[in-house]
Amino acid sequence: MTDSVPAVSAPPTSSTVRISDRFVAYVHQVCESTQARAALRRGLGLPVERCNYMHRYLVPWMRDHDDQHHADVRRAYYAVASLIAARPRSARDTMPDESGSVSWYERSNLGASLGQAVSQGVLKENSAESALHLMARQSSDAVHPGLPALVRQLLVGGIAVDWAVLLEDLARWNRSRDRIATRWLESYFRTASSGTTEPAPFDSAEENDR
Q: Measuring CA to CA, which residue among 25, 18, 27, 15 is closest to residue 66?
């Protein structure tokens, strides 16, 4: 590792690569610098207005790739960047899958990750269900502060989180909370009972929200 900030560029534009996946790859590259990783980690659970050390790394990327003026979208980017930066050492070697071989709606959302955690004994069933039901009733302002502890439990237990899916779900949360929460709960119950990660039902309306 080095303390110098690496020169980082986002992956080439491609119609088959989602902006969220490109952002996740970008943050993984940025986090190769211990200095940058520490700066991003300082934003854990905080609103964008209190993430002054993150602007250096995220403002230029958002300017070129997404709607930096939409508050929910901005906060989702900052939240996911800080969560990636705060990964425990055991999870840092896990790079995002850029194969593009899996359909978006076959990828794991947060509910599926929690279900996998229950099936593998990482989380207790009542704890995971309570967390999901609580988030289903909350606005993004209440959801964001609780994510760092929950995500850390998953990562420490060896449960993967699909950062790109989480990013898009958080960006849409206030507009489509009921739909996303339902998808999370459905994925949770399928995965917790079967011990395998299964796709969420395809929702074309949600796909068109962004």
A: 18
Q: Which of these, 91, 151, 67, lies nearest to 117 by C-alpha position?
A: 151
114: nearest Cα among 51, 66, 82, 162: 162
Q: Is 174 exposed, middle or buried (0-12, 13-18, 19+ CB in 10 A)?
A: middle
pLDDT at 68: 66
- Nearest Cα neighbor of 165 from 113, 119, 123 is 113
Residues in a beta bridge with 2: 33
CA 114 to centroid of chain Cα atoms: 13
pTM, entire model: 0.83
Q: Which DSSP string do the residues of 125-148 spell out, in sequence order?
A: HHHHHHHHHHHHTS-HHHHHHHHH
What is the rounded CA–CA span in Å between residue 48 and residue 52? Answer: 8
SS3 assignment, position 208: coil
Residue with tokens 């190769």: 32
Cα gap 80→83, rounded to integer Å: 5
**Rounded Cα distance, 68 and 143, in Å:** 20
Place of tokens 């950062």: 163
Yes or no: say if 41 and 79 are a contact pair by the CB < 8 Å rule: no
Kindly list the averaged pLDDT for each block of 10 residues, start to end, along the chain of length 210.
43 66 96 96 96 95 81 95 93 61 84 97 96 96 96 96 97 96 96 60 44
